[in-house]
Amino acid sequence: MKLKVCGMKYQDNIIQVAALQPDYLGFIFYEKSARNFDSEKIPELDKSIKKTGVFVDESIDFVIEKINKYNLQTIQLHGKESPEYCITLKSQNIEVIKVFSIVDEFNFEKLKPYDNVCDFFLFDTKGKYPGGNGYTFDWNILSNYPLKKPFFLSGGIGLNELENIKEFKKSNASNYCYALDVNSKFEIEPGLKNIENLKKFKNITALAETTKNKKERVMNYNVNEKGYYGDFGGAFIPEMLYPNIEELRQNYLKIMAEPDFKKEFDKLLKDYVGRPSPLYFAKRLSEKYNTKIYLKREDLNHTGAHKINNTIGQILMAQRLGKTRIIAETGAGQHGVATATVCALMGLECIVYMGEIDIARQAPNVARMKMLGATVVPALSGSRTLKDATNEAIRDWINNPVDTHYIIGSAIGPHPYPDMVTRFQSVISEEIKWQLKEQEGKENPDYVVACIGGGSNAAGTYYHYLHEPEVGIIAVEAAGLGIDSGESAATSVLGKEGIIHGCKTLLMQTTDGQITEPYSISAGLDYPGVGPMHAHLSKTGRAEFMSITDSDAMEAGLELSKLEGIIPAIETSHALAIFKHRTFKPDDIVVMSLSGRGDKDLQNYIDYFKI
Ligand SMILES: *Cc1c(COP(=O)(O)O)cnc(C)c1O
């Protein structure tokens, strides 16, 4: 567990405590507190120590002024700050800790509105004043902690609590305890810390930590305040794009949390897309593979795949940002069609960039986009495929920064795109939870499975299960003609760290860093990288990655058609093919994202099977 030392006040004492290398140092900006920090500056600290400002119901401007003046990395909110207040500050690129005080009992329902808008909770003892009351609350109350958000444990922790901490570490709740927060029990007088006692405490708790099973430790699979998933993500963009990305970054969470936005998004998903999509128990498929298989029917959405969930979200976002012109890039045309569809729905101008070669290969989708009123612009440079179309779209955006929104079609691109797309697609796992509860009496399956191109249907299918360790995550990539054939798109196996389309992720490249042309029979999986969340899931081992060849995928697509009467998209067929290669227990519940329908792939199936 990490350590936070709070209530710092005196310059020399700050330097001494910082030498012990705590993870957080807290500075209280609250005039009524004996530890109110009123110095003009904080001494230069090691970069690994997060300077944390503690506030009680201050104005946003006051908090922002302190963030800038003292270069704070974290803020801790002790008052009755609302979820909207938290979001506004989160857009400042800052880590947010929301505090809740506990007496003899606690209604954990109170936390839910804050789950998506802060990085951590902090639990301390309810007393006369906010914080620093010097006594502990009954930590057993936390055994009812219903969320997965990591928290700080606070309130009167001193050397006397070492035994209790040891006990607490055996509890389930401790899996989500990210840090211990200490203050008054280590003081000589308010604001002046006893270095020897702190050293003792830190050494003993650190020792206990090294013996703890690493797997149990809290791991965060969501994006952090800097736009990273572990080592991956970020925003590597040309300077000229900075204003566009920054505008989006500062506003996306705020807009998504607006009740009006949520209402309109949910209504369109229901009445226009046709959600909720069914969770279908595939009886004959389950019998064949001797396990329980559920299919999440994204193929039944309007336009035939999951992509519309994201384009609906982004078009509403674009409207809230005052944009009147939409651009997109497309490879196989699926994302272009989903974008043209929502532009027609909202009456916005739509320009889709598409490689000249792809335009020739994907005639039906080009026709669809035109019928929907979009302008399809051929990309004539380079290999005249997806990456060239992406370059053209970026160039357009640089030239039209004010009125144009760029709708990216997968969980890729510079921050905040991967997180924004993931949140729009997370409706998939949100529905799976209650649908599975209805059918199986529990929210959590044993596995969730999805195919990965850039990773948007997968991110949506995993989202609400990322921090449920008992739910296994399986990610399925396209092996093309075979991993060693030189003709594949198996990024987790073949990829190395690199930068593509504005983010750092795993990516297939030559030894001198040139991006390798990917290959897969399915146009939607034919991408040389994966979204940064999936790179992180792969590197940390949270997800199990499998690669499926063209031929196995085609066979699995035919099999589902004959066993269940559902013709899947070839992308989805890759996920379906895992059952041939991996056994599950008879009572395992496996939920698979059936990302799209096979109508668009009919010619491919016909040619392959000579039907
Ligand atoms: C586009 C597409 C995919 C791949 O995209 P992700 O962003 O990885 O989900 C998968 N399945 C279908 C049906 C698609 O159209």
Question: Percent of residues in beta strands?
Answer: 15-25%
Q: Which of globular, elongated, flat, extended, rod-shaped describes the shape?
A: globular
Q: What is the averaged pLDDT score?
A: 93
| Number of structurally distinct domains | 3
Q: Could you name the CATH topology of the largest domain?
A: TIM Barrel
Q: Tally of extended strands? A: 24
Which stretches of 5+ consecutive residues score pLDDT under 50? 211-216
Total helical segments: 22
* Order of strands, widest sheet: 1-2-3-4-5-6-7-8
Helix content: 25-40%
Give the oligomer, counting copies of the same chain as homo and different chains as hetero.
single chain
Mind telling me the CATH superfamily name of the largest domain? Answer: Aldolase class I
CATH class of the largest domain: Alpha Beta
Quickly give the structural class.
Answer: alpha/beta
- Straight-line N-to-C gap: 60 Å
The bound ligands are: pyridoxal-5'-phosphate
Largest sheet: 8 strands, parallel, barrel
Give the CATH architecture of the largest domain: Alpha-Beta Barrel
What is the CA-based Rg, rounded? 26 Å
Explain what the structure shows.
It is globular and about 85 Å long. The longest helix has 16 residues, at 195-210. Residues 211-216 have low confidence and may be disordered. The chain has an eight-stranded parallel beta barrel with strand order 1-2-3-4-5-6-7-8. A six-stranded mixed beta sheet has the order 13-14-24-19-20-23, sandwiched between helices. It has a four-stranded parallel beta sheet with strand order 17-16-15-18, with helices on both faces. With 611 residues, the protein is an alpha/beta fold. Helix content is 36%, strand content 19%. It has three domains: 2-216, Aldolase class I (TIM Barrel, Alpha-Beta Barrel); 232-273 and 304-420, Rossmann fold (3-Layer(aba) Sandwich), CATH 3.40.50.1100; 279-302 and 425-609, Rossmann fold (3-Layer(aba) Sandwich), CATH 3.40.50.
